[in-house]
Amino acid sequence: MTSLAPLVGLNTPSALVDVARMRRNIDRMQARMNALGVRFRPHVKTTKCLEIARTQAEAGASGITVSTLKEAEQFFAAGFRDILYAVGIVPGKLAQALALHKAGCDLKLITDNADIAAAIGRFGQEQQHRFEVWLEIDTDGHRSGITPEAEALLTVAHALVEGGSQLGGVMTHAGSSYELHTPEALEAMAEQERAGCVRAAERLRAAGYACPVVSVGSTPTALSARALPGVTEVRAGVYVFFDLVMANVGVCAPQDIALSVLTTVIGHQPEKGWAIVDAGWMAMSRDRGTQRQPHDYGYGQVCSANGDVAEGYVLSGANQEHGIVSLAGGTDHEIARRFPVGSQWRILPNHACATGAQFPEYQALGADGSVQTWPRFYGW
């Protein structure tokens, strides 16, 4: 349990990282990837923090995944060279990608579009550069990508190779796993994700295209897969912190969540059973992802300043800079006495990526009570 002493001097709201929990989460995922015999490429968009990415690398991760080219630039400048930009590239960003390549970054791009594949090739020829591009595969109908059996798979591959680009592999993300909440459903989705991506690679190879990389991943499927034959690497991001959506999915408990927002009680509405805190949606984000899940945590689960879950209390409402803490399913008319003005709470987030994005830095709380400030990247 982290000492309370360092929290007294922290401004609120502050983004807190429980370092011991974070390290356990990192070790858990890496151990699972090692047992499955695959390379692990963490998605650093959740934390956007060098100190955390370095901890992941020290645990055994190989390469990183980013969601913006600005992330790629900043992590490359800090020494990370093997980077997958896991958002579909557009022609207007090719010059930025080329600059990274010329600086020595081993940057991989993705696409699911034949016209974009051709544009990548044209730009590369004009600049006398050969980009490595992976094909995005849709294995669950969740977002973008080419379905494994689609004719477009070979069409896009042809456009890439004929245009002079290097087809580096295939990648997929089973984002619909976030909508599940039983071990059986998660295991089935992990196998669907694996089988679909492997099938796409097999079709490409049968057509004469090299496809060395088969990359899959989401936090729920990574932690639920029984075996990953044909897969070369896994990607996952939110596992490093976890959050309340992941707790509802069933891959962690609230006690595993390493990110929280430190907030201070600034007032009360006793007749309503409310405590007013200085963390609104500008601190927590507007994400209400648990609203559609079995347990609705409002805008976040309330914990003591020590990090212990305060059962029943949630951040039930949020304005820009004000949050409302109340007892879910009831009214605590003694809330002003229990939690006087000046009391501190930690609020666990619904979506760690969104909450983290509200802050320029984390306050990293060590098990020994020490506090370090870890800067966080932001922007595009």
Question: Helical proportion?
Answer: 25-40%
Q: Please trace the helix and strand order, writing H or E for each element.
A: EHEHEHEHEHEHEHEHEHEEHEEEHEHEE
The total count of strands amounts to 17
- Major sheet: size, sense and barrel closure? 8 strands, parallel
pLDDT < 50 stretches: none
Radius of gyration: 22 Å
CATH 4th-level superfamily of the largest domain: Alanine racemase
Number of domains: 2
**For this entry, what is the oligomeric state of its chains?**
single chain
Please characterize this protein's 3D structure:
By secondary structure, the chain is α/β, with parallel strands linked by helices. The protein folds into two domains: 5-13 and 258-375, D-serine dehydratase-like domain (Lyase, Ornithine Decarboxylase, Chain A, domain 1, Beta Barrel); 37-240, Alpha-Beta Barrel (TIM Barrel). Helix content is 31%, strand content 24%. It is built from twelve helices and 17 strands. It has helices at 19-36, 50-59, 69-77, 94-103, 114-126, 152-162, 183-206, 219-222, 244-249, 281-284, 335-338, 352-356, and strands at 14-18, 39-40, 64-66, 82-88, 106-111, 132-137, 166-172, 213-216, 233-234, 259-269, 274-277, 301-304, 309-318, 323-327, 344-348, 361-365, 371-375. Strands 2-9-8-7-6-5-4-3 form an eight-stranded parallel β-sheet. A six-stranded antiparallel beta barrel has the order 10-11-14-13-12-15. Helix 5 links the parallel strand 5 and strand 6. Helix 5 (114-126) runs parallel beside helix 6 (152-162). The longest helix is centred in the middle third of the chain and has 24 residues, at 183-206. 49% of the residues are buried.
